[in-house]
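User: Here's a chain of 366 residues. Predict its fold as tokens.
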Amino acid sequence: MFRKRTGSIRVALIATVAFSLTACGVATGLGGDVERISGIPLASEVSAIEDPRSFRGELPLQLVDDPVEPVAADPVPELPAVVTDNQGTVVEVTDVSRILPLDIYGTLSRIVYELGLGENVIGRDISSSFPEIADRPLVTQDGHQLNAEAILALDPSVIITDTSLGPWDVILQVRDAGVPVVVVDSHRSPGNVEELTGAVGAALGVPGLGRELGERTRAQIAEAEESIATITPESQTRQLRTVFLYARGSAGVYYMFGQDSGADELITAAGGYDVSSEVGWKGAKPANDEGLIAAQPDVIIMMNKGLDSVGGVDGLLEKFPAMAQTPAGANRRVISMNDDLVLSFGTRTPAVLNALAVALYAPDAL
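Assistant: Prediction complete.
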């Protein structure tokens, strides 16, 4: 039996533009009157296929960029703001006119924009690519490497970051130059969205707006989870066994993300069965044939560019021949999603969870 709980995603989550997977070679059988989040049909408005394990083929998802929806227009920060950051450092922020939010996920920049302070953002990391920030100069090079010269040239009045970007010496250099640096938690999950948003709001002198945005996002996540439950099997034995694989083929990097990596909570919240807890795969560790065979995944989740970097599913099977001995490999069942969204765990989390759930249990709706 599938859980049939009522509930709909609030209007604030519904994308203003339609999305089609036709360009990816996936047909859509839904009419234009179906409500969508970031272009993907709502889970509560589609039907789960009778046997989700029988579906064959890759599903490349490219979520559209929902417009930023600030919780306030022209907020007036209460400064100075004195906070104790995630590393226990007491930081005083006296000026938020030139904000530089930096992390590997692009989460922090989106939060700053949703707080209504987007006009004060002066630069971006490579993962921050939504339209409103796209014209800001990059301060990362070779992917996710911080560039001290580029950062200092922008003369930031405050930097909001975590430990996901490096080298860390760059952050220390910028701090030594007198720029206030607030380090927030680098852990990302649906469960700590409110805490993360609150930390950013407090550091920028808008603690009330930080709480408001956190509460709004948490409520939207809860509604997304309720919608997802309508197509998710109640029994774990019927939920799709799922693993998250991170790959950068050009660098020979292949990691399977397990317990406490954030990917485990992503899979569970989207209605999948996180295999990592069953096989004892903790954190992010190099992927290997033995681990994949032990996991016996029905589905593999990846980032779009990561899958492209290994030559698609064919390249993945060539790299890990034993994958053919798993249901995911035999069925070529790989779901890929925007690199900057799938593990971002911020204000876009409801859209990410909805898209994954639909791809898992109602793939014919895409």
